[in-house]
Write a structure and sequence with these properties.
- The chain is an alpha+beta fold.
- 35% of the residues lie in helices and 27% in strands.
- The protein has a single domain, classed as Beta Polymerase, domain 2, CATH 3.30.460.
- It has 4 helices and 6 strands, in the order αββαβββααβ.
- The N and C termini lie far apart (30 Å).
């Protein structure tokens, strides 16, 4: 008999911890080409981190957003400040304050090239 995966509750104390949790959660839902942009050294930035990924369908985009909303609340006791684009599912944004997540469909991500707008940020790629 296989043991079920047990998710531990995380008490997030920093933007860096929250970023790591969010990346793990996106990976759970098979988000593609995950990138984090460290904006902490950019004076005009409105957040500490942007996380960008893409999904292959509106269903997957919504699944990632729904998973983030539920699990960040459950594991870190943080509710999103704002969610946009869920109904359309082409480009969704979920704002956790210190970390803002952008989940695109592939075509929209290629079109907007959000990472290029913040090219002075420190960029990390995840598989």
């Amino acid at each position: 008999m296989e043991k079920s995966k047990v998710r531990k509750k995380v008490k997030t104390t920093s933007a860096t911890d929250l970023k790591a949790l969010i990346i793990e959660l996106i990976e759970d839902k098979k988000g593609n080409d995950i990138v984090s942009l460290d904006l902490r050294e950019i004076p005009e930035a409105i957040t500490d981190y942007f996380i960008v990924c893409h999904a292959e369908s509106t269903t997957q985009t919504r699944a990632i957003i729904d998973h983030l909303e539920a699990e960040v609340r459950n594991r870190a006791s943080i509710k999103p400040l704002h969610i946009e684009g869920r109904s359309n599912g082409e480009w969704c944004l979920i704002d956790f304050g210190d970390v803002v997540v952008h989940v695109f469909q592939r075509e929209k991500r290629e079109f907007y090239q959000l990472e290029d707008l913040w090219s002075d940020a420190v960029i990390e790629h995840y598989t």
